Amino acid sequence: MDETFINSYRSPQLSKNWLLNLNPLNKINIYIALGLITLFFQYWQVNVVITLVFILLAVAAGSFKKFIGPFLKLGLVIGPFFFIVRAIFWPGENMIFNYGIINITQEGIDLGIQYATIMLVVCGILVLCTVTIKAEDLTYSLEKIGVPHNVSFMILSSLQLIIDLKDKTKVIMDSQRSRGIETEGNVFVRIKAFVPVLSPLFLGAISGAEEKTIAMDARAFSSANPNTHLRFLRPTPALEKILVILVDILILGLIILGVIL
């Protein structure tokens, strides 16, 4: 066996990007700290700036293409939904349009914009975590701070299950298409084609969970002995710790400023 391949498992898995090399918990810390600003500054402009910061972080991580697609899909669905709900049904003094239960007020529009941009920030956090943090790195980091290995395995399995269901759905839809079943078209055609997929999809998920349980038992997953890992992370450098602390202090200062204002 190639000695280089063997040695690759003896050293921490690093990339050439500084942001991707940060500890997963530190990255989550930074993302959530930035997101907390939206709770204390009631200005939609602030939410837009934070969203742009997330986009810049995705660019810095070299993951802009992976980030922007899911971000736009989530943001263009969730953001307008919250805007419409708040803009149409929120009471206010400055009435713009009224018909039945529909009350469009200036206050509702302002609140709708605020909530829509907050949802953009939330979507940015979720997508940025997905594209810059590997699930196995996250669970390894959790184990290093004392989280039981069975809990970290449940987190990893849950994240992996989403990916597996997506892949299985694609395979089943391709099989349906090869049989001449129409799967493309308007919304009703897609729903009609998707409903028969649910049964084999969930049966396959249940079967896969059972097979995974048997495989883990065969590998002494429940053993009390310390676990070994094929993949591990570098020790957190002092400079990275200082960076996280400075970011937290800066965000805390901005939050205090927001409360005062």
UniProtKB/TrEMBL annotation:
<keyword id="KW-0472">Membrane</keyword>
<keyword id="KW-0812">Transmembrane</keyword>
<feature type="transmembrane region" description="Helical">
    <location>
        <begin position="242"/>
        <end position="260"/>
    </location>
</feature>
<protein>
    <submittedName>
        <fullName>Energy-coupling factor transporter transmembrane component T</fullName>
    </submittedName>
</protein>
<feature type="transmembrane region" description="Helical">
    <location>
        <begin position="71"/>
        <end position="92"/>
    </location>
</feature>
<keyword id="KW-1003">Cell membrane</keyword>
<dbReference type="InterPro" id="IPR051611">
    <property type="entry name" value="ECF_transporter_component"/>
</dbReference>
<dbReference type="InterPro" id="IPR003339">
    <property type="entry name" value="ABC/ECF_trnsptr_transmembrane"/>
</dbReference>
<keyword id="KW-1133">Transmembrane helix</keyword>
<feature type="transmembrane region" description="Helical">
    <location>
        <begin position="112"/>
        <end position="133"/>
    </location>
</feature>
<feature type="transmembrane region" description="Helical">
    <location>
        <begin position="28"/>
        <end position="59"/>
    </location>
</feature>
<dbReference type="Pfam" id="PF02361">
    <property type="entry name" value="CbiQ"/>
</dbReference>
